[in-house]
Amino acid sequence: MSTPPSGWHEAATSPFAPAGLSFTPVSRGLAKVRLISTAIWLGLPLVALVVLAVIFPGWWWAIPIGVLVVLLGWLGWLIPRQVAAIGYAERDEDLLIRKGILFRQLTVVPYGRMQYVDVQAGPLDRWAKVAKVQLHTASAATDASIPGLPPEEASRLRDRLSERGEARLAGL
Fold it and tell me: What is the pTM of this model?
């Protein structure tokens, strides 16, 4: 039984923690991917600002540089906590996906509504040994995804969800 991440304190009657249900956490490799992506997207402007500050000296460069440094630090603290809050649970009739720390989300995807299941991994994902399982349902607005799964688990989950989806559709 997996334990919820720190900060995920829910009563048994909470809509985000159904009683008797254990959520499987995603890989910590997802935190690496997100931290590296964040460092690239915020680090490049930071380097550019530092170079400009050296070329054109002035005290006011400290303001945008400071903002980017604080933002990088805050995201470095936040991203691992966000990743720790992501999890999924398989039940007999549906799949539950939870996300979020402050703004929590619990998505319930009935197997009978699934049309197909997709597994995706970019170069950085493959380096960190993670993949994303994308669930496509009968309603485009309710598509759900589980990021940060080890490739073997993503493949197993894709096959299992496809089987369960086909079995539920056959009964319609």
Answer: 0.80
